[in-house]
Structures are given as C-alpha cells and as structure tokens.
Amino acid sequence: MGSNYWMRFLKKRRYYPRLPGYDYSKPGLYFVTINCFRMECHFGHIIKGKMILNDFGKFALKEWLALSKRFDHIQLDTFQIMPNHMHAIVIIKALPPGQSVEENYSSYFKTLSDVVGAYKSIVSNLCLKLHKNKYDSKGHVPYLGKIWKRSFHDHMIRDQPAHKSISRYIRNNPKNWIHRKRLLN
Asked: I want to staple 53 with a disulfide (CB 3.0 to 4.6 A). Which of 57, 130, 137, 166 is the partner?
C-alpha cells in the first residue's frame, strides 16, 4: 500500500475528545465549551465588553436555562454565550438518598453528551424555524447551514480553586473578546 492510502486513512480518523472509558453520567463538575460551525458568529456580538444577544442568542439562552428542568440530575453553574461559542459549568448531581437506580433510570444517568446533544438539537431547530419564518414572506430562503460543530470540549473540574478560576474565565470572556480577536488576526 502506497503512502497515499495511509495519508487518506489518517485524515479520515476522527478525534473523540471524551476520555475513553470514563462514565460521563458520574456526579461532578464539568467545564463545557460548545463551538459554532466554522466559528461563525450566530448568537450576537460584543460591544464594550458586553455580549449583546440577537434572536438566535436569545433562543440559546432560553434553552440553556431550561436544561435543568429537562434533566433532573443536572444543575447549571456559571455560563456565557458568546457570538460564536458558549462556555458553561454543568454540575451532574448524585442520586438523592433513599432513591433507587431503577425508579430514576430515565431521568438520571444521562451523560454529559446527552445533555449537550439535546441542547444543541433544540437550539438548532429553533434557529432554523426562525430563519425560515424570517424569509418566508420574501419567497426565497437563503441556506442557514449548520449552527454547531459536531462535538464539544469538556474538562472535569477537580477542586475549588479550579472551579473559581474557570468561573472567572467564563465571566470575563466578553471583556477579553477584542484582545483574542486581535491575536487571531
């Protein structure tokens, strides 16, 4: 087999950011970053260090806040929606004392991927519906494309200092937006 075969094979291999063998339904704190497809700014813009949400951003905010109602076993901590991504700390809670696994299996034991996947799906569908309604009266609907990248990044928060540091990073993200954009250009 020639070197071309191996180059094509290596290019097609997908990187899976989840820790192999780790149970992401375990109680704990997780720092999550969800990026927009091609880092396109779908959710609004930053003005003077403050995030200004557009309609898509308002859907993203509303659905993020609704997640803890949809999934009993999670609690939302610090989060920030940015123009082209979002950061959040998600707390997966332990099963309440005196309750059995069998009676709570459907609401508990959803993984972090289940939670993020549901969120991304709901936000994408709402944005698509809004996009179609916006252009229906004009006849031609321009292609919206994907909202989210295929996966997400996560990091297990292991102690209180890490939790404080990550929370500060999330809260300061809009203020640091201009600085980061300059570094990237």
From this structure: 57
